[in-house]
Amino acid sequence: MASSFVIACVGKPSAGKSSFLNAVTDASAKVGNFPFTTIEPNQGVAYYAIDCPCATYGLSAQCKPRHGFCKNGRRHVPVRLLDVAGLVPGASEGRGLGNQFLDDLRQADALIHVVDASGTTDDQGRETRGYDPVNDIQWLRSEIEQWVAGNVERKWGGTVRRHVATRSSAVDTLHAQLAGYGTRREVVQRALDGVAGAVDAQLEQWDAAALRRFIGEFLDVRFPTIVALNKIDMPDADKNIAAILRRYRRPAAAPVSGRPMLRDGVSEGNIVLTSALAECFLRKMAAQKYIAYATGDDDFQTQGEAGGEGLRPMDDKVRRRVENIRDLVLFRYGSTGVQDVVGRAVEALGYVAVFPVKSLVNFGAPGGAFRDCVLVRPGTTVREFARKLHSQAIDEGYAGAETVGGIQLAEDDVIVAGKNNIIKYSVSA
User: Fold this and answer.
1) Where is the OBG-type G domain (predicted)?
2) Can you give the CATH number for the domain in which 183 is found?
3) Residue 224, SS3 per DSSP
C-alpha cells in the first residue's frame, strides 16, 4: 500500500521551483516502481531517506524494497510531491492562477516553499537587485490566511447560531467549517488547544480577533511549512540568509520542549539552505560518469581521486564548475540541501515508518527482506494499520500482532518508531 500524504511545492516564478522539483524527483525515472497507481501531470515522486532495519539485522544484501530503494542501509521511501502553480501576491483574490493554487493546497499535508535567497527576483519573479526574500515568506502565509479566513468569516454568524442551537462541541462546529480543507477532527482539536487561554472557550463569545487568532493556529497545525532557501551560492544570498535566520530564530527565553514557536508559519528549524541547480548539475555529471555522487552526499569524486576509478576526464570548463559547487555549496553547507527539505517535510508531519513482515525470524529473506515500508500518521494504532494494509484479509481476519522478540501487541498500541514498527500480523484461517 502507498502512504497517502502529499507534499505541495510552492514558489513564485523564477524562485527555482522547477529546478528544485527536478532535483528531488529525477531519481523516480531511474529507480524501480513507485506505489501510486496514477501520477497526475503536476505530481511527481520524491524520496524520504531513513535508516533501514536491514542494516541492524545484517540483511542489507537481501533488502529488496517493493517500492523505492535501499542503499547501504538507507531506505528511500517514495512520497508524493505536488507542483502547485500560480503563486503570486493576490492569489486569494484570484490573481495569476490563484484559485487553482489555493484549491491544490487542499490536497496537501505539508508545504515546501522554495524562496529565492539571492534577492534577484521581485514578488512577481521579475529580475531585480536587493529584493528582501522575507517578503515572500510573509505573503505566502498572508494569502493562505486570507483565503481561509475569508471563507470562514462569511459564514461565521450562521455557524455560531447553529452551534448554540444544536449544542455542538466547539471542535465539531469548527471541524464542520474547516472540513473542506482536508482537515481531520484531531487537527482542529490541536489548534483549539493551541489558543486555549488566549481566546474565550465559548465560540459565541469570539470576536473577529479571536477567530483570526484561531485560524492562524489552525494553519500552523494544518499546513506545516518547510522553507527551502534556494540559490545559496549566488551573490547577496549570505546577508539575506543571515537576516531570515535571525527573524525566525527561537527566542532565548522560549522553552526548548514542545512545538516550535512559529512566525509567519515558520520556525528556524524548518528552514533549509539549498542549491537546486547545483544538485541538478551534479546529478547530470554523475549520470554521464564524470563524477561519483549521490543526492545528500557532502562531496563527490572525480577521475584521479580516491573513489573515482572508472570515471571520465572533464574539460577545464566543467571542472571549474564542479569545483565551484564543491567550494561554495558542499564544503560550505554540507550538501545541496534538497534531500534535507523532503526529510524535514515528512518529519514535520510526525509520520512513522512501519515495516510489515510475514516473519520475525528472517523478515522475508532470502527472497527479499523488509519488502514493504509504509509511512503512517502519528498516533496510528496496531489495528488501524492492519485496516490500512488490507481491510479484508488482515483486518477482518485479525487474530493478533507481534513485533521483534515475540512481543505481543495490543490492538490499541500506538506504533512508535524503534519500538514496535516492525509488525507481523496473524489472521484466522
Assistant:
1) 5-294
2) 1.10.8.470
3) coil
CB 23 within 8 A of CB 55: no
Residue 201 lies in a domain: yes
* Domain end among 332, 347, 375: 332
Q: Is 293 a domain residue?
A: yes
Cell of 175: 471541524
Q: Which helix (H) or strand (E) holds 271?
A: strand 271-273
SS (H, E, C) 152-188: HHHCHHHHHHHHHHHCCCHHHHHHHHHHHHCCCHHHH
Name the residue range of residue 198's domain: 146-219
**Digit-coded pLDDT (tens) for 223-258:** 999 999 999 999 889 999 999 999 999 876 666 555
Residues 6+ apart with CB under 8 A from 247: 134, 263
Question: In the beta sheet, which residues pair with residue 414?
Answer: 381
Q: What percent of the chain has pLDDT over 70?
A: 90
Distance CA 148, CA 28 (A): 34
Selection from 178-192, 240-254, 271-285 with the highest mean pLDDT: 271-285
Say how many domains are in the chain.
2
What is the end-to-end Cα distance of the chain in Å, rounded?
Answer: 23
Q: What is the pLDDT of residues 388-411, one digit of tens each?
A: 887 667 878 899 999 999 999 999
pTM over 0.85: yes
**Domain-located, residue 299:** yes
Q: Mark which of 219, 248, 263 sits at the end of a domain.
A: 219
Residue 315 lies inside a defined structural domain of this protein: yes
The closest alpha carbon to 322, from 294, 291, 298, 276, belongs to 291
Task: Name the grid cell of 262.
Answer: 512559529
Q: Under a CB-based contact definition with an 8 Å cutoff, are residues 82 and 42 in contact? A: yes
